[in-house]
Amino acid sequence: MKSFTNVTVDSLANIYFDGRVISHSVHFPDGTKKTLGIIFPGTYRFTTGAPEIMEIIDGTCEVSIDDSTSTKFVPTDESFEVPGDSAFTITVNSGYCQYICSFLPA
Questions:
Q1: What CATH number has the domain bearing residue 62?
Q2: Is residue 15 situated within a structural domain?
Q3: Torsion, Cα of 101, 96, 80, 76 (10° steps)
Q4: Complete DSSP assignment for the chain
Q5: Count of domains observed in the chain
Q6: Alpha-carbon distance 31 to 71, whole Å?
Q7: Rounded CA gap, 67 and 85, in Å?
Q8: Tell me: the pLDDT tens digits for 13-50?
Q9: Residues of 53-66 as b/e, b for ≥16 C-beta within 10 angstroms?
Q10: Rounded-to-integer distance, Cα 43 and Cα 64, Å
Q11: What pTM does this model have?
Q12: Residue 2 belongs to some domain of the structure
């Protein structure tokens, strides 16, 4: 999904890693939340509170989820899930990676 209707968007960005990862929060009428973001080349580690689904909508990345021994390549139009109260490391090797992160009920 590349566009949303009937939502509220936070105008101030969430900025991480000196501006190498930037997102905006989108709030839906049913109370759910997503973030839309861009990741520039580098390796970054994030922690989660709630479970998440990360949809890659442009670019590619590699992901390693805590407690996993493998790294997954994630191209455009694919996704990965991260459990709640966990962490993951995401690497963008070149270009940039755009994503939609959906926060799921715990």
A1: 2.60.120.10
A2: yes
A3: 110
A4: ----SS-EE-SSPEEEGGGTEEEEEEE-TTS-EEEEEEE-SEEEEEE-SS-EEEEEEES-EEEEETT-S--EEE-TTEEEEE-TT-EEEEEE-SS-EEEEEEEPP-
A5: 1
A6: 33
A7: 12
A8: 999 999 999 999 999 999 999 999 999 999 999 999 99
A9: ebbbbebbbebbbe
A10: 11
A11: 0.93
A12: no
Where do we find the tokens 């390693």?
Answer: 64
Domain assignment of residue 3, yes or no = no
Task: Give residue 40's domain range.
Answer: 8-103
1 inside domain: no
Output the CA–CA distances (angstroms, integers) from residue 57 to 3, 39, 63, 106, in the order listed. 11, 12, 15, 24
β-pairing, 78-82 with 72-74?
Answer: unpaired
- Tokens found for residue 105: 């009920």
- Residue 25, number of CB atoms within 10 A of its CB: 19
Which residues lie across from 12 on neighbouring strands?
A: none
pLDDT digits (tens, 9 = 90+) for 53-88: 999 999 999 999 998 889 999 999 999 999 999 999
